[in-house]
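Fold Annotation — chain and its backbone

Fields — amino acid sequence, structure tokens

___
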Amino acid sequence: MQPSALDADTRAGTAYRFNRFGTALLIDDMTFSRDAPGPGAPMPAFDLATVDGGRFRDTDLGTRPVLMVFGSRTCPVTESAGPVLRRLHAQFGDRVRFVLVNTREAHPGDVFGQPDTFAVKHRHAVQLRDHHAIDFEVAVDDIDGRLHRAMSPKPNSAYLIDPSGVIRYRAHWANDESALHTALTEMAAGRVPARGRSRAMAGPLLRAVGHLPGIVRYAGRRVERDVWLAAPPLAVLGRLSRLFNRLPADRRGPAAVVLLGVAVASVLGVLLATQ
């Protein structure tokens, strides 16, 4: 690598390990870059350690299709995806290799922050595995997230890869259970998924909203302040979701949307009545 290219990679790695979540990051999370690897593209080269002492390599994927999912302990969508991945692994784990790749923290806080060494990132990966009671492989991207960056980094994207290393399916969010189930069914049967992508957005994000208060409690109050500054509507929904603690976390976000809609409609009704 030429010195200029090396400097650019170093800067990109430093920028990747952000300490404060902001609006620009939120916007980046919503779309893949034009050159992001997608269905039909080969996986970039990688060689990652797994928390159990093994390796996850592009040159040794094994004989089964691979479901590779990115995630972190401070990602609300990863929180929502944990039970989804356990259910899918229980059904397809004998025919598909499951690997969760620990990335940078999606919402680093003042208590649980962004790792600044590989050793710390490895500990975060262990905590991620233990928190979600995951019994399949958990790998750790390097400290600068080279694999994650090569894929156009998203907090909780998922990829189905055939044994030759070709991507056959990409999901923007790994909590999109129905779409992932369909794609896994086809791959497990030896077929390329008829639909190569899942672009679902509103449903996955609303399911994640109810997990945001838990992330704040775990990572620190700074997380909530950052979300208020970066995405006030999400912060409002996160606050409202606390009113529905008796519901499963995935249902609190949709309930908060309904409550907010009723409140706005009521205010508008009062204003119109006074005209």
Remarks:
- Residues 38 and 120 are 30 Å apart (CA to CA).
- The chain is about 45% helix and 10% strand.
